[in-house]
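Input sequence (331 aa), recorded before submission:
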Amino acid sequence: MNEVNWSARHGLALMAAAMLFMPLADGARAQAPAKLSIVIFSPPSLGAFMPPVIKAKKLDEANGLDISFQERTPDAYTAQFNSGEFKVGGSASLMTIGLAGIRGVKVKYLFNLFDFWGAVVTARPQVRTLKDLEGKQLAGARATTNYVMFEFFAKKLGVDLSKIEVVNTATPGLVGYALADRADAIQLWEPAYTLLLAKKPDIRTLDTGIERTWKAFAGGERIPYLGVGAHADWADQNPGTVAKLYATYKAATDWIVKNPDEAAPLVAPGATADDLKAIGSLIRSNERLAISLAPAGEVRNEIEAVYRAGIEVGYFPALPSSETVYGKPLP
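Predicted structure, C-alpha cell format:
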C-alpha cells in the first residue's frame, strides 16, 4: 500500500514538474501585455502630458499594453513617424497627419486628446496687437500644428505674415526665449504657457481672436487639435490594440481630471511648488488645457474644418483625404 501511494505521489510530482516546461496555451499567451512603442514630443508639450500618468499609474498594463514612450523634437517626430520607424504617434496633430496623407504616407488620426488653444506673449511695450509684430521677431515652433493655426488666426486678423521674422525653435525652447526676452514675442501653448506665467507673471498675452474667428469660419466652437495617430496598415491590422490604446488614454484622462493636484507633479516633474499649483489649477479649469477625448470618427466635420484652415494658409496644397480619419467605433 505504501509503495502504491509513493508511486502515485511520485507520478504527480513528475507531472507537475513537466508542466513547468510546457509551452503556454493560447489563452495564457493572450494575457501577456502587447508591447507598443509610441513617439511623442519632448515636454513641455501636450503630447507628453498624459504618458507619465499612463506609466506611473500603470494604465497601459491595466488595458493589456506595455507602452514605451519615445521623446523627440517636432522635426524628428515628423521624420520618424512619417518614415514608419514608429507606427504610432502620441503627438499626432491634425496638420501633420493631413500633410503626411497628401505626401502619400497612409496614416490615420485615431482619436482626439486636446482641442486647440494657443497664445502669443510679449514683454515689449510697443507690441500691443498681432499686427504690431510686422517688422519684428517672433519665436515659434514652426513644425507644429499650433503654429500653423496661429498663422490662420493671424491672417484672419489682417496680419501680413511675410513681414514677421520667425525664429524657429523646438517646443522646449519657447519658455526659455520668453524668460530671456530674446524675441519680440513668442507663440506657445499649454502647459508651457502656464509654466511661463508662473515664472514671469508680468508678460502680456495678445488677442488672437480664436473664438470669434473660428465660429465665423467653421460654424462651431470645437477645434480638434492633437491626439494619437498611426500608420493605416498598422491601424487596420490591429483594431483590438487601437481600442486598448483608446481605453488607456481614456483612463488617463479620467484620472487626471479627477486628481489635478496629484497629476501635476507627474506631468511636470521637477517643477517648483508654484508651478505645480499652477498646473493643478490649469487641469481643474480645463479652459486652456482643453482636454477633449473623442474618437476621430465622432468629430469628422470639425477635423475637416481644421483641414480647410490649413488650405487657407497654404499649408496644404489640397484638401487631405477623408481616409486620414479613423472611422471605426471606439469603446
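Checked by second reader. The longest strand covers residues 107-115.
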